[in-house]
């Protein structure tokens, strides 16, 4: 049987546009010989629709759109993720479902049984669970239909079994011939092997061909990597679709199971390549899906803005990116030189706007109220906010998306200025720790030739090698107020991502004074993160929708 | 039996501080003759703890703290909301529970059965549900223990029955003598009667005295109003505790059921008084719980900042509030006069900082890049951002909390400048529609004498009467770009709070062009709200944690 996988990029809520994308993919795969076509989870409305589901007409609009799509489906069936209205007055208003469409109508609807309600997922807020998986009999085959989490019952969330039902085990007792899974599974940096294992294990448990079709694209913070796969009954991978881009593929199975030997290669690329691809996709989709062709950012000469500029140039095209150097009276010459060199290397537009006059005017205006008080963080923040003001003026005037350049380490400890360097519509590397920023920058340089088809270093050597500094006062370095980044990042990973307490970190060998200082800063700066731009998620626990810490709280672990 | 209600104000995560508050209240109520003492839901850790629950030691720390509290409990039992660790490896890590403490130990733990997972609540993310309510036999009485939502099973959420179990019905079949409910039920403007009905209905269903103890205090966006009540077996209210402040009360029941005839008066105060009290509490608790004694805000001479200044003066004391007029070259004289008059009326500090120099410097710096382009929103935003920059400099220098003054109508349509007038740590009236801002301001003036003990108008008449304007360009008024506020607010309520679509609103008689324009603006400005300060919630649907709309989305209803 030839199965068509439609790994397509949809826009949340864009029912008309998604319809066209679905039908285009369907027709293309049918013409390539597909005998059944599989789409991702909630492909009709995009994922995650979040509280759009509470708009009174949303679910019926999605259903109506799905029926209109079904009307275009011919002899080759299509399995399409959509929202099915709950026909009863009990429980949530909808099911997260798969429409099995054939010859103009929806002949069966399969409901998602396991509703993820952790991290970035709130499905218990929206959906009523199905009681068990659905089996459709079609063309002499018994086809098991599952949706995303349904095949993840055995995962350990907080080292616990979350679910009472295991849909895969349930289907294993039903002698099915084919297992389909529609997914919208966002990528993060440790997910690849886990996901492949679940698909493979499901194939083995049900002893049948198992085909998994995942979303691709960036939707706000979430980055869907695609990488749809098919596994044979023995669990071996027989096909793998592209990572981080749309892909349509007809998977031929049966006698020629080994026909596609290298296809699961996409799961094997290095982690840094994955992160880079994910961030490029995230910038491109956030910008393009919200109508921006162009982006701009401040270039400090430092490594964070250099990395973001490089990603933006790849995502949007160098001609659509503007870098702006915003020196103050205390900015070093190397900051300006390194920024200009980076812009040259990338081929992006480059401008210099001095903040000196704006800062001087603001300080002069404040002088009567500030008289007699020592200079402190207030004056440092004026510099950062003058930069934000000028960059936002450019964003408003030219219709360009301002990108913020702060990394996860800075954002964690509040080493950033609210309404200053935190200004911007998208935080490109806010889930990338500083040590990863270095690693990614070195990797980019090493791969520059391959990526851009020309030799030479992209990110200036001095940008990578120099001592990091915010340059908000003379001779300042990051390490005046922070521990070395290797130490800081390790503490932050433990404290934020792993939920460890101060006691645990000290017991693990970190210096107690440093641990207390870092933990205190993380807690204290929740208010800044509350007002941060949405940030692209690349780890199991990013700041943003997946991490919900009260602002005013006093827990000391 | 004499039941002590401990309606106390806790701080999220402050286990040591909350312990002291609990034991102080316990001892006070025991000395007043209580024979059992009832506390609010999750009182040991504060509500809502959110993802603090995922910190590895949090649940065990709360359990340990609760055991330490229990060790101080004597012959008079106390029922205390806490997190009970889930002893199995299945399901979520904890139960939202009530510890029945007596003579030094926890003698029973009752688990919350219904876990609200809508609006601001994410309890399915954190807790495993109890299978049925718990009954404790104590002193010859059968006491039913429920937690908050457990008595709300019959509520209509989105006109639906969410739950399969009704703990009240279950208890009604168990012949109990006393029903206790521990709550952390945040206030909004239509909740009073609903809540009273549920307590009363539960009393009638179980045919016994029903005592409901609610949290009080502001925790980030949420405002808990207290208003604990006791209802007799016939459903009549026999005691009601204070609204929006701490209250300890021993409720005497039995023969003298009518002993407290006027106590449920707190439920009957006018809605505007409730809103005012709620906002005052929200400002006070947000500031004090996060360590701020002082606040500041920009005073434009307009009604929004006048209302926020009035609330802040009441919350923090006039001597702790600073109002700053930030005129531009196009600000009208009445703006400055009205701002000064307001500050005089309130008795708050008042300063004037011209933004002219900072704006001129920024525009001069941008001139080479802006040359030849017409003036537009970019220049208007520079003014708003220069104000934000100066206000934040004052906030940083003096350690004062900056309050933002935007109302819900503005925030809905994006009639505000990100990093400009949106700067601030707390959005005091971001859930108050503009027409309510007028109503509340008039109500404040009418009640000024009663509230402040002296005659005269607080908010200047001209501030209330004048045509609203952002004054970002000459002769601008809000109605240049927005429909009249009465129309705008009605459309916004339908579109945002009621989930109506454009079609529904047009069918309801609103002008189609206006409806499309307003809906478009609401959708387009999700990115601004993503970066807004936390806002005090006073309606069933506020911007913030209770409303989760994707930023990049294209649904047109």
Number of strands of chain A: 19
CATH fold descriptor of the largest domain in chain A? Nitrilase/N-carbamoyl-D-aminoacid amidohydrolase
Look at the structure and give the mean pLDDT of chain A: 94
The spatial strand order of the largest sheet of chain A comes to: 5-4-3-2-1-14
Q: Given the structure, what is the number of helices of chain A?
A: 17
* Largest beta-sheet details of chain A: 6 strands, mixed
The CATH superfamily of the largest domain in chain A is Carbon-nitrogen hydrolase
The chain pair forming the largest interface, with residue counts per chain, is: A-B, 100 and 100 residues
CATH class of the largest domain in chain A reads Alpha Beta
CATH architecture of the largest domain in chain A: 4-Layer Sandwich
Cα end-to-end separation of chain A:
56 Å
Structural class of chain A: alpha/beta
- Looking at the chains present, what oligomeric state does this protein adopt? homodimer
What ranges of chain A have pLDDT less than 50 throughout 5 or more consecutive residues? Answer: 255-264
Count of folded domains of chain A:
3
User: How large is the share of residues in beta strands of chain A?
Assistant: 15-25%
Helix coverage percent of chain A: 25-40%
Structural account:
The structure is a homodimer of 557-residue chains. Chain A has 557 residues and is of the alpha/beta class. Chain A folds into three domains: 268 residues, Carbon-nitrogen hydrolase (Nitrilase/N-carbamoyl-D-aminoacid amidohydrolase), CATH 3.60.110.10; 207 residues, HUPs (Rossmann fold); 42 residues. Helix content of chain A is 37%, strand content 17%. Chain A has 17 helices and 19 strands. Chain A has a six-stranded mixed β-sheet with strand order 5-4-3-2-1-14, covered by helices on one side. In chain A, strands 6-7-8-9-12-13 form a six-stranded mixed β-sheet. In chain A, strands 17-16-15-18-19 form a five-stranded parallel β-sheet, sandwiched between helices. In chain A, strand 4 and strand 5 form a beta hairpin. In chain A, helix 6 crosses helix 12, helix 7 runs parallel beside helix 8 and helix 7 packs parallel to helix 12. Chain A starts with a strand and ends in a 27-residue tail after the last helix. About 2% of the residues of chain A have low confidence. The interface between A and B is large, with 100 and 100 residues.
């Amino acid at each position: 049987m030839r199965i068509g996988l439609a790994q397509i990029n949809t826009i949340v809520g864009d029912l008309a546009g998604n319809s066209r994308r679905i039908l285009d993919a369907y027709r293309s795969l049918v013409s390539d010989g597909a005998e059944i076509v599989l789409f991702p989870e909630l492909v009709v409305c995009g994922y995650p629709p979040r509280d759009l589901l509470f708009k009174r007409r949303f679910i019926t609009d999605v259903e109506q759109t799905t029926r209109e799509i079904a009307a275009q489906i011919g002899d080759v069936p299509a399995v399409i993720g959509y929202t099915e209205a709950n026909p009863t007055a009990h429980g949530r208003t909808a099911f997260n479902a798969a429409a099995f469409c054939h010859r103009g109508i929806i002949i069966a609807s399969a409901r998602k049984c396991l509703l993820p309600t952790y991290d970035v997922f709130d499905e218990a807020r929206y959906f009523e669970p199905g009681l068990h998986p659905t089996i459709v009999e079609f063309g002499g085959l018994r086809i098991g239909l599952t949706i995303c989490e349904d095949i993840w019952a055995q995962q350990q969330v907080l080292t616990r079994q979350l679910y009472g039902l295991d849909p895969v085990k349930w289907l294993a007792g039903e002698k099915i011939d084919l297992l389909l899974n529609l997914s919208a599974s966002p990528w993060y940096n440790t997910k690849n092997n886990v996901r492949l294992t679940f698909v493979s294990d499901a194939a083995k448990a049900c002893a049948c061909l198992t085909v998994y079709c995942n979303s691709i694209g960036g939707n706000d913070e979430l980055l869907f990597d695609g990488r749809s796969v098919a596994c044979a009954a023995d669990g071996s991978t027989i096909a793998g679709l592209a990572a981080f881009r749309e892909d349509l593929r007809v998977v031929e199975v049966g006698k020629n199971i080994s026909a596609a030997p290298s296809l699961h290669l996409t799961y094997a690329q290095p982690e840094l390549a994955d992160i880079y691809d994910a961030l490029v996709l995230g910038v491109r989709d956030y910008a393009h899906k919200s109508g921006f062709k162009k982006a701009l950012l401040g270039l400090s000469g430092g490594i964070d803005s250099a990395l973001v500029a490089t990603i933006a140039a790849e995502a949007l095209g160098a001609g659509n990116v503007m870098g702006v150097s915003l020196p103050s009276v205390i900015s070093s010459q190397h900051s300006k030189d390194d920024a200009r060199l980076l812009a040259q290397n990338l081929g992006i537009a480059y401008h210099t706007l001095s903040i000196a006059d704006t800062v001087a005017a603001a300080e002069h205006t404040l002088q009567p109220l500030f008289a007699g008080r020592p200079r402190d963080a207030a004056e440092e923040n004026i510099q950062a906010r003058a930069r934000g003001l000028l960059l936002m003026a450019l964003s408003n005037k030219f219709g360009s998306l301002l990108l913020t350049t702060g990394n996860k380490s800075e954002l964690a400890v509040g080493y950033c200025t609210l309404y200053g360097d935190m200004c911007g519509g998208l935080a490109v590397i806010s889930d990338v720790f500083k040590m990863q920023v270095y690693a990614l920058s070195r990797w980019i340089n090493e791969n520059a030739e391959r990526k851009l088809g020309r030799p030479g270093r992209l990110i200036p050597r001095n940008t990578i090698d120099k001592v990091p500094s915010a340059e908000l006062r003379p001779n300042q370095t990051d390490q005046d107020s922070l521990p070395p980044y290797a130490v800081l990042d390790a503490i932050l990973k433990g404290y934020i991502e792993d939920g460890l307490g101060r006691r645990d970190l000290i017991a693990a060998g970190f210096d107690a004074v440093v641990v207390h200082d870092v933990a205190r800063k993380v807690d204290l700066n929740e208010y800044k993160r509350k007002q941060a731009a949405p940030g692209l998620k690349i780890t199991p626990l990013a700041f943003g929708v997946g991490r919900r810490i009260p602002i005013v709280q006093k827990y000391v672990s």
